[in-house]
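Ticket #4471: complex job returned nothing on first submit. Input attached below:
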Amino acid sequence: GNSVTQMEGPVTLSEEAFLTINCTYTATGYPSLFWYVQYPGEGLQLLLKATKADDKGSNKGFEATYRKETTSFHLEKGSVQVSDSAVYFCALSDPTDSSYKLIFGSGTRLLVRP
Amino acid sequence: NAGVTQTPKFRVLKTGQSMTLLCAQDMNHEYMYWYRQDPGMGLRLIHYSVGEGTTAKGEVPDGYNVSRLKKQNFLLGLESAAPSQTSVYFCASSAGLAGRQETQYFGPGTRLLVL
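Support reply: We reran it on our side without changes. The output follows.
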């Protein structure tokens, strides 16, 4: 079945450091891929998405490229801020599944120190 | 627009008690979902609905029931709560248009503690 694997957290960085959060997936077809972010005490918000191979999603300085050859969708940001401290979830959606449900990774907590 | 709202925000139940969680969306979305979030496990789908009057089981449906009597509301019921149902529950909605990967919009969550 379809699944998503994320790197274990927490990830602790100093402000302005470079961020990478790894995400790999297993899917039978050609899924769409998402990164959601959850700030403390809040629900999940879509951060970025990509719907086909080699697409790059980007938002708020974050980027992720859909790599079919390595089945990966790693999240990157060149210079993190304290306000980026949150839990980040990688997810996929199977376009052949009429429910459009999301399959999530376990989440990676990011803590950015001033 | 309020987006997706959930009621209540927090609840404590005793084992065997029942309760209903309410989710409401004002975006005229067809699809609605209930997930539970547990430490180290991400979010798992409980039940979902692809339109008013329809419901379907997700990954972890046991112990839960749902109803979608109105398009804007999606109710999650626990008939006899168990400690294993202690979790944070999130509702989400999406337009769910055929052939497109629609974004899901999430509510703020309901934290449930079953003693």
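The mean pLDDT of chain A is 93. Closing as resolved unless it happens again.
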